[in-house]
Amino acid sequence: MVCALTAIAVVAPPHAAATPEGESSQQLFGQPPAWSSCDRMIGAEKARTVPTAQCGSVAVPVDWDAANPQGAQANLAVIQIPATGDRIGVLMVNPGGPGASAVDTVAEMGAALAGSEIAERFDLVGVDPRGVGHSTPELRCRTDAEFDAYRREPLADYSPAGVAHIEEVYRQFAQACADRMGADFLASVGTATAARDLDMVRAALGEHQLTYLGYSYGTELGAAYAEQYPDRVRAMVLDGAIDPGLDPIEHRIRQVAGFQKAFDAYAADCARSTGCPLGTDPAHFVTRYHHLVDPLVQRPGPTSDPRGLSYQDAITGTVNALYSQRYWKFLTSGLLGLQRGTDAGDLLLLADEYQGRDVSGHYTNQQDAFTAIGCVDTPYPADAAAWAEADRRAREAAPFLSYGAFTGFAPREVCTMWPVPPTSAPHPASSPGPGKVVVVSTTGDPATPYQAGVDLARQMGAPLITFEGTQHTVVFNGDACVDTAAVDFLVDLAPPADGLRC
After folding, report:
1. Low-confidence ranges of the chain (pLDDT < 70)
2. Catalytic, out of 128, 243, 346, 445
3. The AB hydrolase-1 domain covers which part of the protein (predicted)?
């Protein structure tokens, strides 16, 4: 791990004041944000829902080990919604991804939590990690047209020729990322660096310690922060945990198994309704699903959108729907459209939402950031045989996601051809000390399966809150049992009851 700078050195480098005005247009690293209206950052309509919110940025060095006031910098977008009552400090929120905007998430949370004890006691703060969301430079590897073209690729042919084609698609993407962002910036976007950036923002806000709420990948970022700065953690709630000790193949197998479990739950629920496109026999749910989506490898399905529904988008839309039961009805509608040959547009809309495409055809950079961060966070095996074995295991764990028969060939992931080396490696999380962390894990979470939360809680010596449900993350999502325990811990540092299940 890189060494942490002291708070004094981060906030006010001794040479900062000596920089003549106009000598550099760059903001000095770690200066407090110059707060202003959030209209420009998040849009006036969204800003009106959180009228007290203020937005700004904190500059950080691209290369921490060569940090100097004239060096290359990234500007981290920050939103802060001031506490309305007896203030404890800041509650920093990260929604995960990696690549999701914490600024946008906190704006939405601020409106939803208005009048709550959390809003009374904490400044709600969101920091977009370098390259993510509203931070600059924006980590973007593809144009909108290039992303649309990528989504038309089935990426399903695992013959030797098909695998070679898929790997070439990945190789072109990796090269485009290097060409557009540069190797130095790509090498700087890992989670260990993001944790270091987070501590600079803490210091810039004048806080001695952080109270933190991390969802999904945000649990990995929180664990990395706790490892580097244990004394600066006041309290952390980590919901939808990622086990940082898993290698990428094992993580993938466990995750697809989680999605199979969620698919089975969806299909069983669908079967209770007349006309379910998957039928009523659990033994045939997966077969009927493949009967509907597999033909899309050869020809897009019908939608009112001229793009049609590609095979890749059908899978992406299905996966998106499995994150929450609220989306199940749209999955059913899309599958019915395929069955009837009419309009499978709801599946395309689900895919668009997952990929960050708006109605004008413009994409957020979330998926590019997701890949770039993941590729520098852990080594990926380059051996083709390892990926063929991973494909065999994935087909067993999640048959609904598997096209065709096992061939003994499979494409290596894009990270195996990434233009910069990894900056971290899998290792178990460490505890920042007793009473500082609570982990929340959902029994039917498809994206971050329950066992990862069990393991993270054990690694960090933290109590575990178990939520019985089929969804991804739960804190402040309407469950009174979970929310009460989370608020009691964040506000009063009161641990949840042993073995709490909600």
Report:
1. 1-27, 67, 69-70
2. 445
3. 90-477
- pLDDT tens digits along 32-91: 999 999 999 999 999 999 999 999 999 999 998 876 766 889 999 999 999 999 999 999
Domain residue ranges in the chain? 36-138+187-246+426-492, 145-186+365-417
**Among residues 135, 216, 402, 441, which one is catalytic?**
216
216 is catalytic: yes
Answer left, alpha or beta for residue 472, where phi above 0 means left and psi between -120 and 50 means alpha: beta
Concerning whether 239 is annotated as a catalytic residue, the answer is no
Residues facing 61 on adjacent strands: 73
> Among candidates 115, 113, 15, 21, which has minimal Cα distance to 67?
15
Which of 199, 377, 472, 479 is flagged as catalytic? 472
Longest dimension (CA), the chain: 75
Handedness of CA 79, 134, 217, 433 (dihedral sign): negative
What homologous superfamily is domain 36-138+187-246+426-492 in, according to CATH?
Answer: Alpha/Beta hydrolase fold, catalytic domain (3.40.50.1820)
Is 284 annotated in the active site?
no
Extract the tokens encoding 129. 């990690």
pLDDT per residue over 271-309, tens digit each? 999 999 999 999 999 999 999 999 999 999 999 999 999
Give the global pTM: 0.91
